[in-house]
Amino acid sequence: MALILRNQIVVLFFFCVLWVPGQGAFAGEASESISQLQTTLIKIMKEGSTLGYKGRWETITPVIEHTHDLPVIAKIAIGRHWEGLTKEQQQKFTNTFQELSNSTYAGRFNSYSGEQFSVISEKPLKKNRVLVQTRFVKADGEEIRFNYVLHQTSDQWKIINIMVNGVSDLALKRTEYGGILKKDGFPALLEKLRTQIQENEDRL
């Protein structure tokens, strides 16, 4: 009897170790924010041609504002150069960066071929932050990992960084933006962002 019970415990242990929960298995508020974002992304993908760029923008923008801490992301993206900008420049950059973020989602998530998002896990980090790991499975079966770092604001958990297959989007932006500021100055950085916004709008 004792041997049977011990074997049952061993089986239960390995089941718990190997089990990977799917979307909806987490009740954490951080995961709920990510699920809200990804559900809306699937929606604009499915209705992409009907909505058009403007419709996708109007649908996704309030969700982005609700789930992303864009002012904080904008400041981090500038890095050490932030304090060297005037208050007016800081505000102008933040506004343009927010517009770029919205246009990137609206421009890139424009069609649907059976793709699916799912939440894998939610893990606490230092400095009152949380990591939410998710997967995006394309129509051909290719899997892309989208991992989100969120911090807690006064009202909810909000995204401050996104990593795609282990590559930090924020780190890439800091390198790119810092190089432009150092070489060509603030006007050139704003022009770069506006060009990217136009490119997103020109996508099908």
Number of helices: 7
Which spans of ≥5 residues are poorly predicted at pLDDT below 50? 1-27
Q: Globular, elongated, flat, extended or rod-shaped: what is the shape?
A: globular
Alpha-beta classification: alpha+beta
How many domains, in number, for the residues?
A: 1
Assigned CATH class: Alpha Beta
Overall CATH architecture: Roll
Radius of gyration from the alpha-carbon trace, in angstroms: 20 Å
**Helicity, in percent?**
55-70%
- The amount of beta strand, in percent, is 15-25%
Major sheet description: 5 strands, antiparallel
Give the strand tally: 5
Report strand order across the widest sheet: 1-2-3-4-5
Kindly, what is the distance between the CA atoms of the first and last residues, rounded to a whole number of angstroms? 66 Å
Q: Compute the average pLDDT.
A: 88
Instruction: Find the CATH topology.
Output: Nuclear Transport Factor 2, Chain: A
The CATH superfamily title = Tgt2/MlaC
SSE order, one letter for each helix or strand? HHHHHEEEEEHH
Could you provide a short overview of the structure?
The chain is α+β, with helices and mostly antiparallel strands and 204 residues long. The chain has helices at 2-18, 29-46, 48-67, 70-78, 87-108, 169-183, 186-201, and strands at residues 116-125, 129-137, 143-152, 157-164, 167-168. It is 57% helix and 19% strand.
Blueprint of the fold:
Blueprint: H1 2-18, H2 29-46, H3 48-67, H4 70-78, H5 87-108, E1 116-125, E2 129-137, E3 143-152, E4 157-164, E5 167-168, H6 169-183, H7 186-201
Antiparallel strand pairs: 1-2, 2-3, 3-4, 4-5
